[in-house]
Each structure stands twice: as C-alpha cells, then as structure tokens.
# Entry
Amino acid sequence: MNKLTPKERMAIERVVMPELPADERSRNFEEVNLGLSENQAFEEARRCLQCKNRACVAGCPVGVSIPEFIDALASDDLPRAANILRGDNALPAVCGRVCPQETQCEARCVRGVKGESVAIGFLERYVADWAMHHPDRLLRAELPPATGKKVAVVGCGPAGLTAAGELVRMGHGVTIFEALHDTGGVLRYGIPEFRLPKEIIDQEVAQLTELGVVIECNVIIGKTLTVAELREEYDAVFVANGAGLPIMLNIPGENLKGVYAANEFLTRVNLMEAGRRPESATPIIRSREVAVIGGGNTAMDCVRTARRLGAERAMIVYRRSEAEMPARVEEIKHAKEEGVEFVMLTAPLAVTATEDGWVAGLRCQMMELGPPDASGRRKPIPIPGSEFDLPAGVVVNAVGTNANPLLTATAPDLTLNKWGNIVADENGMTSIPGVFAGGDIVRGGATVILAMGDGKRAAAAIQEYLKGK
Amino acid sequence: MFNVISNELLAENLHKMVISAPRVARARKPGQFVIVRLAPGEERIPLTIGDADAQAGTITLFIQAIGASTQKIVATPAGGALRDVAGPLGKETHIANWGRVACVGGGVGTAVLFPLVKALAGAGNRITTIIGGRSSRYIILADELAPLSERLLVTTEDGTLGSTGFVTGPLQEMLADPERAPQAVFAVGPVPMMKAVAELTRPHGIETVVSLNPIMIDGTGMCGGCRVQIGGATKFACVDGPEFDAHLVDFDGLSDRLSSYRKEEAARHAATGCRLKEERR
Ligand SMILES: Cc1cc2nc3c(=O)[nH]c(=O)nc-3n(C[C@H](O)[C@H](O)[C@H](O)COP(=O)(O)OP(=O)(O)OC[C@H]3O[C@@H](n4cnc5c(N)ncnc54)[C@H](O)[C@@H]3O)c2cc1C
Ligand code: SF4
Ligand code: FES
# Structure
C-alpha cells in the first residue's frame, strides 16, 4: 500500500489546512482550522520519508513516535496510528491544535531542509480526532491490577491530566484536586474556543474518569486542604497548579474601568462564557476599539477574542517588532487575516481616562531596536518626543504571569526559586519527599507539551518512589 | 454539589443559608469567604462565611439578594443544592486582644462583621457594636450580636429603630470620649460608610480594619479582577485581603471599579425580573 519511492514522496506538496473564511470567523467563536480531509491526511502522510534517524522525534518534548504513527496512517491503519500516538501523548487532540510544531518536530523534519516539513501537527490532529470519533475501533489497554497506592494531583491542567493518566494506567488510585469549578486549566480558561473547542477537553477528561481518575473541583490546595494534609492521606502528591498570577503593567491608569488582565478577559469569555453564550450571567465590557498589550500567544488570543466580541479596531501593542514576537506564527497569521492591527515598536506609558473613569486609550511611545539584551532579543529603546495617543475603550494587559503563591504559602518546606516557582529536579522531585511538581509552576509560563512532558516524567518517578515504599 | 440545609429570610432581601461543605467548614477562619456558583452558566459570586460548624460540616452564609445572581442563589430552598462552593478564600482576620474595640456594620456588611465580632469577643475584647441601615427592616443580626458585645448601638436613617442617622454618629461620640475611645475599629459595609469611618479614626491614629468587596472571578489570585490600591500599591483582595488597613485603602478607586458592570447588571436584572413575573402568571 505504502510503497512509494523517495522521489515520489518528495513530489507531493505540503497540505494546506482548510480554514473558516476570515471575515466569517472573526465574528464567531467557531474553530478556525477545520481539520484535514481523509484524502489530505493520507497524501500528507505519504510525504514522510520514514527517516531512520527520526530527527522529528528528537524535536518532540514527549518523544512521540512520529514516523511510526505517520506510517500507520499512510498504510490506512488508523487504529494502529491512533494507538501509537495515544501511547506516547495523553492529549493528542489538544497538542495537534496548540503545540508550536514549527519550532519543535517540524523544525527538525528533514523535508524542511529543502522545502516544507511534513505537517506533523495536522496529522496528529487528524489521527486524534479520528480516534475520538471511533472509540469502538481503538485497542483497549487492560489496566494492571490495582496497587492499592493513592496519588493526589493538584491542578487539572495539561501537566496534571497527563500525570493522572499515566498513574491510573499503572494501577494507582488517582484523585485530581482543581481550584476552579471545571477541568482543563489554561486549556479551558485561557485558550479560546476558536483554537481549541472545549468539547475536546471534555472528551479527554472523560477518558480519564472512565479509567477511574477521580476529579474533585472546587478544592484549593493551600486553602481547602494543605499539601501536608494530602501527604497524610496519599502515598505521593504531584503539584501542577500552573502559573496564574498576572504581572501588572505598573503604569498610571491601570485600574480604570475597562482595563483587564489577560487572564480575567479570557476567563470571562472562555470559562464563564461571557459574550459567547447569551445565557451566560457573567458580563464582559465590549468596545469598538480594543488595545491588547503584549506579543505572546496570550496576547493573540485576547485580541482575536476582542475582534469576535465586536471590536472594529482590535490592536496588538508591542514594544519590539513582529520578528521578536513570541506568539506562534500561525496565530499571528490568523490574527492578521482577521483584521487585527499590529502596532509595533510601541510601549504604553499610561492608560488615559474619560471624565467618568473609563478607559479612553493608551498614551504610547515609539521605540527602536538596540543591541540584544539578556534574553537574546534586541532591546527596545524609547525614541524621545515620539509620544502619541491610541484611542481604545478596552485595554487588555497580556504581558505575562508569575507563580501563584496560594499553595506554596502554606507549604513552607517546599523550596522555591527567587520567582516563587517550585524547585524540582529532572524527575519532578521537590524538596519534600513524595511531593513532585511540574508544568508552569516549575517552569514559569511555558507550553502545553512541556507541561505534559513533566507530568509524564513525574508519573514515572512517582512509580519508582512508590516501589520503594 | 453542596446541599442547602436551611434557608431563612432574616430581613427584607436578606437570607441566612446553611450549606453543607465539610472541608470548608473545617478549614475556615474568621474573615474568609467562599465563591459560589449556583449552576452552569451562572456567575461566580464571593460570599463571606458568616459562621461555620466543623462538626456538622456546615457553613452559614448571609446573603443580601440585590443582583440577579444573588436572587437566584437565595431562591434555592432547603433540600436544594448549589453546584459550586469553593473556599475558604482570603486571609483570616488578624485577631488580638486590643482591649476596647468598636465594630461597625452597615447593611449586609453586618453579616460580614458577625464572625469578626465573634472572634474578637472570643479573644477577650470589650466590644461596642454599632450597626445601621436605611430603616428598621434592614437591621440584621442584632439579637446574635448583642450577647457578644458589651454594648450594641443601632442607627437607622429614618429613625424607625435606634437613633436616627448613620453609624458614624455613635462612633464619633466614642472617639471624642477618652473613657470610651476604642483601641481598634473594624468596619464593614457600603464603600462610602467604610471611607467615612476611616476618615473619622485617621486623626486619632486608631488601627482601623475594613473588609473590601471588589468584583471577583476565581478568588485565587489568577485573574487580577479584584485588584485594589492599598497605600499606592496594587493588591489582590482575594489573596492579600479581603481585610485591609482602612487608612491605606483607595476607596474612590474601589467604588469606581465596582460600577464597571452597572449597565449589564441592570439589563440582566430587568430581564430576569420580567421572566419571574411571567412565570407567576
Ligand atoms: C492564553 C494562553 C494561551 C496559550 N497558548 C498556548 C499554545 O498555543 N500552545 C502551548 O503549547 N501553550 C500555550 N499556552 C501555555 C500553556 O497553556 C501552559 O504552559 C500550560 O497550560 C501549563 O500547564 P500546567 O498544567 O502546568 O498548568 P495550568 O494549565 O495552568 O493548570 C493548572 C491548574 O491548577 C489549578 N490550580 C491552581 N492553583 C491551585 C490550587 N492551589 N489548588 C488546586 N488547583 C489549583 C488551576 O485552576 C488550573 O486549572 C498558553 C497560555 C495561555 C495563558
Ligand atoms: S523528519 Fe520528517 S520526513 Fe523524516 S520521519 Fe520525521 S516527519 Fe518523516
Ligand atoms: S478574584 Fe481573580 S485575582 Fe482575585
């Protein structure tokens, strides 16, 4: 079936992801990427050269068996493709949508050297979505006999979900404690519906609960229960409570009505469904002009959300240039297609006010790029006399987050670094025996896949730890 | 699901609800609150834990039904359930024995004050409690507060109960009398009331604590929506508060931010009000 010569493989062009038209999607919250058709996926899979040295795999933080699952797909054996993929990656339908493949597996892909890399992310999504729609055709892994050991997981984001999935498959009893009323962490409250439909999180979570993972929402570790209490009741604890504490801009006018931190803006719309479903009781302030400060994924998500809430001018205000933006290329491209304005080399000096205390706009200053700074990116330098006003009725601060101290404040034995992140070794082990940690609470704001990698490694380390008990 | 054990109407629009929430009841300290979400699609609403019974596994909430969301919460009868109750959140009240303490409550703030009075009395303070409202119908918890207080003073704006005027009247008299002047003041109520109390005690340099009620979503320090200015610095009321040194609070900024959704709230209130009427017909 899959017997093509390398030359034949090389002749196939990279697939283009079908998308909702920009003018249509910028007015609703429907998913932008529609997913590949069966034919497209099959053709794309045939582009893979099945390299022996598996360069792409080395670029994947969880080491997904990429050529193997692609080969199964090209051989039209979707159950096998799904099985390979799901064995390596607990949340493939999520990763296929939000992973920055262009800097990971696809950046290493041999085909990218002289042309375009294999669309590994699109194929991952295709196989994962197929699996989701064909549960009856998947190979069911038998759970090992119960070990009688109990593990507590703090936080229901990608790190916590991954660890829980691994641990339950090892036969341990797993309970996830989540502070919010719903699952998914940033996947639910941060990343918008148009990039990651919430239904996908529901399905991934349902698979875990079917395996026996217990999820208890509305439990804030550090408040409702402490880490010490968990240590008493459970044989091990995995802490994955994320990095959700907004960094303030510290400029005048930041507390005016209409100024949001990105987390609040996104949580209102994503978790609370404000402006998205008419029956949501949670309000959101809308404006014809919205300025979002920052250049990362979060900023793109905010500005594209603002556009969908009806902003005619939805603007990214960023103090460096587009080349330095940390956001994914795809996100920047999508934002532009949707009519987002990019106000580059511009730093906000103050939020200006109307007479009755609402946002009137941003007082800005133009910047130019100097030599590289500590982060290796060129440092923005203010241009004197270049101040100008940008009108806006809503301003969103998307400059970043710090570690949330709620949990760590009540666990004095937990060693933290100077930014308040939990210190953990490569296996996720912390300074407290039996307490492991991973994801954003250890790394600071990182990525879904790195958080998942941490969850996977910590689960293996917990397994070792429990054997020794 | 968190079961509603009882639901009593204490005064116009003011309900006392006892909820089964064993973990919260066990962990809770005076000054802390919970976030309640009645059902999917509903708002997350912060509510002070008025009292708790760790043994019975229950917490008591005093809820003034002023907005559409709180009205729906208090409409849940005993035997019903609240979908989400998360807590206890916020810092606990710093309780010490100051000696003479004035506790000032306005409107539903009196309910927030109640656990503080209880804890302060437990620590041996001699307490003058001053509670006020628009008229006698809005005076709550007087019977519960009286046995904990050395003196209980009531003020109403229309004179239907106690002395006519605002809670600041009796407080001012206390401050003016060296024999009765308190060593510490706790005030909870509408923002203008707390601001007025802060201004009264400021010249005397008396330690004054207020409990703030900004708009919140998560209550865990994640969203930044509850930020308040304290002594020129940004604090998150849900993790750094809700109680703060009254002399450092930017009350004007707080009341301004509290009005952020007035338009949306009015619209929703009107909508649900109409629906209720239709259902009745
Ligand atoms: C808007 C936005 C867009 C992003 N886009 C991308 C993207 O496209 N691709 C990508 O790879 N990464 C992206 N990221 C980053 C990525 O989402 C995070 O790196 C990842 O979610 C971290 O996972 P985590 O499991 O460590 O934490 P989180 O996802 O933050 O989950 C932590 C969970 O713990 C809960 N919690 C917190 N404190 C407590 C407590 N005390 N007790 C109990 N529970 C607690 C939280 O409520 C939360 O549910 C984005 C981030 C944001 C904010
Ligand atoms: S590097 Fe590219 S071509 Fe080679 S196996 Fe991986 S995906 Fe296929
Ligand atoms: S309510 Fe979100 S940070 Fe306080």
User: Anything to note?
Assistant: The longest strand of chain B covers residues 2-11. The CA atoms of residues 106 and 189 of chain B lie 4 Å apart.
